[in-house]
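User: quick one - fold this with phenylalanine bound?
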Amino acid sequence: MATKTSIHGAWSSRWAFILAATGSAVGLGNIWKFPYITGENGGGAFVIVYLFCIAIIGVPIMMAEIMLGRRGRQSPINTMHTLAIESGHHPGWKFIGILGVLAGFLILSYYSVIAGWSLAYIFRAGAGAFTGQTPTGIEAIFDSLLGNPEALLGWHTLFMAMTVIVIARGVKHGLERAVKFLMPALLILMLILVGYAINTNSFGKGVSFLFNLNFSDLGWGAILTAIGHAFFTLSLGMGAIMIYGAYLPKDASIAKTTFTIAAADTMIALLACLIVFPLVFENGLKVGEGPGLVFVTLPLAFGKMDGGVFFGTLFFILLTFAAWTSAISLLEPVVTWLVENKGLKRVTASLIAGGVTWLVGVLTVFSFQKDSPIIFSFKFAGEQKSNGVFDILDILTANIMLPVGGVLIAVFAGWIMSREASRDELEIGDGHTYNLWRVLVRFISPALIVIVILKLTGLLDPIIYLFTPIVDMFRS
Ligand code: PHE
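Assistant: Sure. Structure tokens for the protein plus phenylalanine:
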């Protein structure tokens, strides 16, 4: 078992894996999505719930996913199949892998469109389009991009092509090289931007929004969004981290590796908020603006600061790269499956998977067109959504498929796989750390996620009602 290797290649070291997995984790989720959902959900209290989810649910499930990947050393579907049989259970567990591959497809379809916005903004910033603009002017630039389906489609196509090229080239040559430089550069640029935000008059206001502890407005929908985002931002619940784990050297410590990735990811997300919220307040923008938030706040800052054309261009280049290293990990699970099960060459598999994803992405392009038939408003868990199919895809994947995939991964690692197997693979001894991990994946993480999902589907209250007499019986 321990000598198994992957047919798709391997990382050259533990650090290469950390960089690649951090590249997968850090992406649009941190810089684009986290600030806007924090804004929509009222700030501090949401952030605390999110941090709690990262620590209690995200970290143990990431450990589980890397562990399963390294033990199976195949595409997520085949890894789950093999490990289920190995532990004497039904091969139907490979369903976890299938669900994941499907989620990856759907996420990448809209992820690529948003990454296209970032690509477009490299050129807007480079041409000095933001210089000296008012908030209304900046909003008009954003609206004119969204209202231009040909442009959106063009950028989406370019981004998908970039993703397919790296995947087609394989693990070592494409991925490893790129992330080594890009991740540190992104961090430095973000620190510069935080420096800019500190010097605005509204920095204090931004910080207090980010860390206020007003739990009274926090609904179940917000809690589910926080759980969902913990999965999304750490790339969990769909096999991306599992397939990267399949290329991890046997001697690397999974626990330490996981802490490093989760810490880096959380830091980038919080930095993004420290940049965005002061600028929102400084310029009288709306915190609940939605998906356009960073595409409006940051250009405003670039338009005003010295060297803004340079920093602005650089920022959108790095954001695009961050999205790129994430997109790759969304496509890798399905490509490896096509190679393993359909006997396709890596290049062919990448083209097919990329093509299908591109096609689904067209739906998102039209979700931002005013008169398109697929744009509509609806309410989800008390929140108003107005971008039709895009919102549906986002909720379905991030808030439902990833958490469900995550619960199943936790259940598999905690209940189906033998204690010996997981202990052997995690190599954290038989002490407190291992036991804590096991309690988290067996009980705590699944229970928390299931409770929130039951609550949102309206099933929790009847269940509590049914159990109240029994609990009362014990009380008396
Ligand atoms: N983690 C990525 C981000 O935050 C998105 C992602 C989700 C990537 C799931 C892979 C798998 O942008």
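One thing worth noting: The radius of gyration is 22 Å.
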